Amino acid sequence: MYTKICRTLARACMWLGIFGLVAVICAVSWQVFGRYVLNNTPTWAESLALLLVLYVTMLGVAVGVRDAGHIGLESFLVLAPDSLRLKMEFLIHFLILLFGAAMAWNCASLAESVWGYRLPTLWISEGWKYVPAAVSGVLIVMFSIEHIIALAQGREVEPAWG
Fold first, then answer.
1. DSSP state for residue 127 in the 8-state scheme
2. Comparing C-alpha atoms, which of 100, 90, 87, 91 is closest to residue 143?
3. Alpha helices (H) in 41-160, listed in sequence order
4. Which residues lie across from 118 on neighbouring strands?
5. What are 33-91's pLDDT values in tens digits?
6. Rg of the chain (C-alpha set)
7. 26-37 burial string, b = 16+ CB within 10 Å, else e?
8. Name one Pfam family in it (predicted).
9. In terms of Cα–Cα distance, which of 31, 85, 24 is closest to 49?
10. How many Cβ atoms from other residues are within 10 Å of residue 66's Cβ?
């Protein structure tokens, strides 16, 4: 059940990432069109594109953790004996879990501390720049727990699109 929830979340993140990339392309295209055709550069387009890149990147990072696309010192694991390899895999996923928890906590704290400030070109809170990293941190924790459970059960986590 937990794996199904994580897989659904990973797929949702991937779809949001796709829509985010399309939105980035639209924002940048509008900026270029405004600058060179209308001779009136929309100031909000660049800020929106940068904000969307943060969202797309952070969602992609979380999905990369779930689908084991991160750098996990796997070249060293190949050389290790089986008994040590399993312990090292647990350690790697636990350290990634700690990293995700720290990222979620600190980015949420940072978002809260700047929530009263506004991005001048988008007229939204500056805290929205830190929300994607906080959400990604929570997802990284969830996906790391999924990997730890799978290792304990002697299986591997299936990719989101597998």
1. G
2. 100
3. 43-66, 74-79, 82-113, 131-153
4. 125
5. 999 999 888 889 999 999 999 999 999 999 998 987 656 556 667 778 888 888 988 99
6. 19
7. ebeebbeeeeee
8. DctQ
9. 24
10. 24
